[in-house]
Every structure is written in C-alpha cells, then in structure tokens.
C-alpha cells in the first residue's frame, strides 16, 4: 500500500515536491551516464572483438551494485558509525520516511524528500564508480572474476571513501571538501583501476599495439550521454533545487567545454590534427576536475580549472606516460588513471584554492570554510584537500590489491590466451556486429546470401549483391577477408 500522510493524504507535510522531483531527475541522469552512456561508450571505443564483453561488464556492475547497495552498502556509506571511516552494514529497504539530518551530515538543511529518493540517488554514484574502474581492465579481465570483484570492492573500498567524506566520517569531520565525488568516485576509480590493471595483467601484445575503436560515432553518443548526465551528477548534490544546484550545473559545463577545447588545441599543436578520442578525453577530465568543486567555486574558477584539466592530464597521458616505466608497465586500457585519478586529484587540490566562502556557507555545515585564494585560513583547506586525496589513494591501492589477490586463489583474474585471441565469441558466444574482419571467414550458408541478383532474402542488401555480381560465389563457399 502507498504511504499515507498524517491526514490521509498521499503527500506528507514535510515533502517538498519540487526538490523531490529534481532529486529523482538528477538520479536518473546519473544512472543514464552508466546505462546506457558508458555501456555504449565502452562497447564502441574498444576493438570490435571486445565490444560485447566491455558493454556487459558495465551492465553487470550496474545491476549488481544496486542489489548490494540496498542490502548493505548504503548503510555502510551513510548509516551509523562503526569506525571513523566506516558505517554499520544493514538493509535500506524501509524508505518511506523523511531523510534525516544524520543521513546527510554534509547538508546544512534537512532534505525534504523520502529516504527512497536518497538511497537511489546515492546508488547511481556507487554504480558509476565500478563502471569507470572497469575501463582500466577492458579486453582481458576474466568476466567471472569481475562478477566477484564488483560486490567485494563496493563493500571494502567504495563504502569507506563514501562514509569518510560524505557520511560523517573522519575526513568530513576534519573539513575535507568533496562536493560531488572527485575523491569518492573519480580518484577511487582511477587508482583502483590502475591497481587492478597491474594485478590482472596486460592485454595481448597485438591488442596493446593496435586497439582501434569499432564505432567512433557511437562512442560520441555515449560521451554525449556522459556529459549531459553530469548535470544530475553535480546538480543533485545540494539535495534541493536551489541556487547552489544551478551554480554547480553551469560550472560543470563551463569546465568541461574549456577542457575539451584546450585538449583539442594541444593535439593540433603537437600532433598536427585534432583527435575525436582526444576531445572526449578532454571532456571527461574537465567533468572530473570540476566535480569536487562544482557548487563551491565561481564561474571564473571553473574556466581556470578547465584550462588546467585539459592540459595537465594531457601532459601525463601524452608525455609522462611514455617516459615512465611504471606507467608503461601497467596496461590501463582506457587511461582511467589519467582521466580520473590525475584529474580528480587536480580538482580536489584546486578546490582547496578556489572554494568561495559564501558558496561554502550555502553547502557546507562548517561555516568559514574557504580556499587559499581568499586568504586567511584558506591555506589549511588546501593542505586538507591533499591529505584527503592521499587517504583515498592509499586505501584503494591496499584494498583493491587484497581483494584481487583473494579472488586469484579461486578464479584466474585474466582470461586465457585462447579466449583473448578470439574475444567476445569465445567469452559470450556473441558478437557485436554481423560483420567480418581480423581474419574471420564469412560463411555464405550461415549468413543468408541469396544466389539471385535481386537481393531478396539477403540481409546485407545492395552491398552483398554487388559482391555476388562480381564473383558469383557458390552457396556454402567462404570468403577470406
């Protein structure tokens, strides 16, 4: 039966319908970043033979995290304290009541919507963290090991960062600012992904040397969902449809645009041509960089952050990576270390510089917080931000390593070479496209070519008819491509 208010009405007196509506919209936008955004982006940015597996890793994580989240993960992140960095586990299924102050200690005013809204809103952040992490191990991680890794990493890594910074833990109490997940989500995903890539091992040599996207236009569609979905990512964190939310959405788009343009210009200057993949990387680093600061900085600071997020991660990826033996040794498939760990730490540090006092008072429960740019005690905030990043980095290296080493005793972390050579067809018995390449044989008897010239019954249409007219291969023959 639906919840009935104190007077028998469907809406209790504490419910702010506008805030609740925006919060559910924001949660849906963030969810769409993962499903279908990153599912599409991953499935199209990888080599054709890994399209299905890469998309499925994201799809599986989204579903698995939700069940773990409502069963025990939410309370470990936002419940009663068990340790200064961890909450007590428990189910979050009785969701009709008002979100209490204790559930969102970073918010100075009580959120006027039901607990169900908050649980779902926080779930989509947890889910996208695992999916971003997956970008480091695409193209070789054993899917069975991934299925076990997802709930374990959520439990022993993500919930620690979330409680420490958002749920009232020691970093929150100390005053470290992470507006919307620069540390909890992006630094965690980047560092844990890099660590996982080390333990899982590299792709095949030929895949590392040549790993072209199978569909650049579809990749852009996924990237577009990611960018526009970030309005909910950063705009939903004030837990109200207020001024701070509007500032966060505008700053998010400013920083992303500036970062994309700077990254593209650097590609043109140093490589002679703009890269579409590079533009997407620049977009992502801008979105990541502004995330810890989105609602506590002014627009001019968002532009500066965009310039820096489009240049510093570009340098670490395009220059430093090629000179570092450690970075070369670890096969981070999509460069998640650069786009999320580097950009996330950069954004957190810049938050310590540019956090504006009035905006901090609107969002944070501790008055007087400000960045070093505004003088006074602002220098301490910059140091706090660095310490917060250090904790998230250290915890994720250790926790991720332990989890993977435990899994390795039971399930191999890396697929066997026989599967790596074939890809999706060997792992799932499915392929992304009814196309052929990479030495595969196209069997006419299996793929429905007609031996007449009308093209009727031929799913490949005019293109196939043209080939038949050129060679008239016999039914059942194979063509090597």
From TrEMBL:
GO CC list: plasma membrane
Annotated TM spans: 21-43, 55-74, 119-138, 150-177, 183-201, 213-233, 245-269, 276-294, 300-320, 341-366, 386-411
Subcellular locations according to the entry: Cell membrane; Membrane
Domain Ammonium transporter AmtB-like intervals: 21-433
Membrane topology designation: Multi-pass membrane protein
Keywords, comma-separated and alphabetical: Ammonia transport, Membrane, Transmembrane, Transmembrane helix, Transport
PROSITE patterns membership: AMMONIUM_TRANSP (PS01219)
A Pfam family matched in the record: Ammonium_transp
A GO molecular function held by the record: ammonium channel activity
Predominant cellular place of this UniProt entry's protein: membrane
Family designation: Belongs to the ammonia transporter channel (TC 1.A.11.2) family.
Protein name as it appears in the record: Ammonium transporter
Organism: Pinus pinaster (Maritime pine)
Gene field: AMT2.3
